[in-house]
Amino acid sequence: MAYSEIYINPLQKEDVNRVYEIESLSYGNHHWSKDSFYTEINNKIAKYYTARIPTGEIVGYMGTWHIVDEAHITTIAVHPDFLRQHIGECLIVKSLEDCYNKFIKYITLEVRVSNIPAIKLYEKYGFKSLGTRKGYYQDNNEDALIMWTENIFSDEYKQLFNKNIESLEKKVILK
Fold it and tell me: Would you say the pTM of this structure is higher than 0.90?
């Protein structure tokens, strides 16, 4: 079932149990602890959000660190039952909007080389692979792609972002 409205809100302490549940389902035995999420809520450079459907259920989350003029996506996950419903994309859009508001020019992340759906989503938003981190993931020694955006304030990037927003708005209402 696709949802017509997705609500993006700052992560709150009362959200951590559900976020931890999604984290565990998404990342198996090598996932963040509840304490990690509680710490991130109080981290001055961190911005964490949840994605909710109209029932109020949290179905995804995302975190970034803002360091000078760069943002690093630290984690993103969508509950397995809600994949491919534009929830991850809505979270990325919110993060990009934050970056524009804070004059952050570049965004980076690591992603498993095998996570093709995520890689395609990141590429849609202008991320490019600039190398790999060999054996980055502890659970299976899988390599990670290191992905970066160009300057998001460039005319070319703004056109890409606006085109993607227009397309997304035809599918969901981001609130």
Answer: yes
Architecture of domain 5-174: 3-Layer(aba) Sandwich (3.40)
Q: What is the pLDDT of residues 104-139, one digit of tens each?
A: 999 999 998 999 999 999 999 999 999 998 877 777
3-state secondary structure of 153: coil
Question: Do 75 and 30 contact (CB within 8 A), yes or no?
Answer: no
Looking at 43-143, list the stretches that DSSP marks H as alpha helix, in order from N- to C-terminal side: 87-101, 116-124
* DSSP per-residue letters across 12-23: -GGGHHHHHHHH
Coil, strand or helix at 25? helix
Tell me which residues are annotated as active site.
Answer: 110, 122
